[in-house]
Amino acid sequence: MLTWIASRDLAFILCVLGLPLGTGLSLAMDAIGCRGLGNWRDRPLAPWLVHAGTWGLCYVLAVAVLQRGALALATVLTLQWVVQRSHQAKWQSLKEPFLVQDFEYFLDAIRHPRLYLPFFGIGLALSASLAALMAVSAFVFLEPWLLDQLSLSSMALLLGGLALGPAIALGLGLRRLPAASLVPCRDHHHLGLWSCFWAYARFPDTPIDTTQAPALLRQPPSPVAQESLPHLVIVQGESFFDPRPWYDQIPRDVLAHWDRLNEQSITHGYLKVPAWGANTIRSETAFLCGLDEDALGMHRFNPYRQLSRQPVPSLASACAHMGYRTLVLHPYPGDFYQRDQVMPRLGFQAFEDIESFRHCRRDGPFIADVELARRVTQALDDPDPRPLMVFVITMESHGPFLLEPAPDPLRWLAADASRPMAVTHELDIYLHHLANTDAMLGALAATLTRQSRPGLLCAYGDHVPILSPSYRWHGEPDGTTPFMIWSNRPQTTRRPEPPSDLSQLAEALLHSIGCQTTTVATGFLGRSLHRHCKEPL
């Protein structure tokens, strides 16, 4: 009898004590985890109430499911640690806090572990999983099970009593919680991680405002004589940027083709892009749809979730209306980020993903850029009389570069004893892939030069690469990426003012089409495109 009473009391006490103990530990974890993103002492009371209430209700739910107070406490705190570790890894790599939209990436991390786990820490992930397994096993065998000690009605009363305080705290906190500004670093500074989740989850989920897209995309140009339209080859280079201004020890000839094409280009320069280190689809949306972050609203963080169900005018749909055959090449699984659903909605008539490159050569873990150049050449040589618009999304330069074997001897960097080994390793690997992208652009320009039809080559970087050891050692670049628009015909017009934001590049490219068109039918294309061309030299 005494043993039964002691067991029942222990189970009850563990459940009751777990709530205040866990809440305090959770608040402390959040305060410690906010280092680098502001001072937790600056936050108002409402975010702390939201945090405490949310954690408490999660704890009560865990008790109801697991039937053990200590196990529920350890489980919820462990899950919070995983989220906060993900937040820290994301901040270090991408300069952005963990957002409520990012929870879906945990599933992506299982499906595409190489893209995610290295930034979280493979060793850390394995050790945390092992520790969690040992803890669960210990609690399951040592801690008494509540339903063995309490009736269902007593259990309901216990859970209701435990949930009352957290529910009141959450309700009071949400009433006074400030609205999200959609500037993640600012919101995290003022609200903290858990309250940010609530603020972003409550933000109005309205459709994308397409009225802010360029007029040339919203009102597609009228079809013209197809023989007068140039081929369009567009390359979105994975992690493509010019590192030479950032670090003067990088050889100039790493981008030899790029430099030559820039000298011959219609326009070139640097662009502000909506991503740092990853989140390529933000850059894709800015380019293809001409929409900046203000126009996207909440959808700026993962625009393809909305674009998979909302028709939005794009460069591809405008080109298709003008008579182009439209193709997108991306040597990675097509369902990643729902590209297989989004690209057809944006106006691409064909989408070739990793299945089309399954037997192609790789350089590192991903399909080599030279294979994309080969496929573009095949598409340009197709006997179809229509002009081609092809959008190439490369993958070769996707990190993490430290997972690839260190080069011996160095391919690009001169030996420097003052440079940390990890910096030399990742930089030399990155420069190897960057030079391959440069060679691909040179090959594409040569292919366009051989074509009888005029052709435009447009290339830009989606974001700067993740080079965390190098940035810690040498400082961070400014985050802009280079672009250029090059023609296979001698230039007869003055160079237009280059765009400064990636969302302006598609419009600049359409203007270049108008300048390159030799015979344009009267109508929208002639009026809208040619008026933007400068007078001949």
Provide an overview of this structure.
The chain has helices spanning 2-33, 45-66, 69-94, 105-111, 113-120, 122-142, 146-149, 152-176, 184-191, 193-201, 215-218, 256-264, 280-289, 293-296, 303-307, 315-322, 339-346, 369-380, 421-450, 468-474, 505-516, 524-530; strands at 231-237, 267-271, 325-329, 350-352, 362-363, 366-367, 388-393, 455-461, 481-487. It is an alpha/beta fold and 537 residues long. The strands form 2 sheets. A 7-stranded mixed β-sheet has the order 2-9-8-1-7-3-4, sandwiched between helices. A two-stranded antiparallel ribbon has the order 5-6. Strand 3, helix 17 (339-346) and strand 4 form a beta-alpha-beta unit. InterPro entries: Alkaline_phosphatase_core_sf (IPR017850), OpgB/LTA_synthase_biosynth (IPR050448), Sulfatase_N (IPR000917).
